[in-house]
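Hey, can you fold this one?
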Amino acid sequence: MDEFNEKLLKLKNLLSSYSSCAIAFSSGVDSTFLSYIAKDVLGDNAILISINCETLTSRDKKDVINYSKNIGLKLIEVSYSQLQLNDFIKNPSSRCYYCKKALFSKIKEIAKENGKEIVIDGTNASDCGDYRPGIKALNELGIYSPLKICGITKSEIRNYLKTINVDIASKPSSGCLATRIPYKEIINQEKLDIIRKCEDYLLNLGLKNVRVRLQNKSARIEVSPNERSYFFDESIMDDIYIKFKSFGCTYVALDLKGYRTGSLNEVLGKGENLNG
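Sure. Predicted structure:
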């Protein structure tokens, strides 16, 4: 038995020991993989809980419905506004902690109402090296992270999903829209709406991995390094500029380095790159 299959067996045994559980479902690669395995092990004793909030990308909102149908588990969608949280709006570097604490407290509440005492999430072994204050909130709330416990990495998850022909295997990470706004700059609905419109526009052009970082309404576009050449056309740049201006941006620029996780966290110092 190879290393991954040993980890997978360990994961299945761990899930089996829970008897039943609620899965915090974002439609990302990690929570989707975890949901497929939980369905295999626990059947209908596992349910999915998804929080519909302002920071969820348009793509993820659609995928929550589509992927949950493919998985075949009961989905409970709950609406929650992060803009009621002062510590979220003020956007400190610990913003993710306050956000996760509120969202997962709500998930625990809904899980308990549905007879599920155990809540699990898709945090995996690859997340351990990043600056992720949200993990502290999960630990405080007693949320289980089976993928991390079993040492399963992001690349192993994607490889496994490819072997079972699940199209989400190649889905880029999305992160929440709040990760596009620099720390200490106030988060509000207007900024989140601008970011959503800009990213949706670029995705509809056929770009695959997109971030629009917004600072004082100045937009900085990040795409995968191999997609940067898409912008090397004056008419395309003009169209994007005009469209972004109509969405409320004052300036529009392309990040020449391209997308990398947590680029807004680079100001925090070496070794503190976050998600998003």
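The chain is about 45% helix and 15% strand. Let me know if you want another pass with a different chain boundary.
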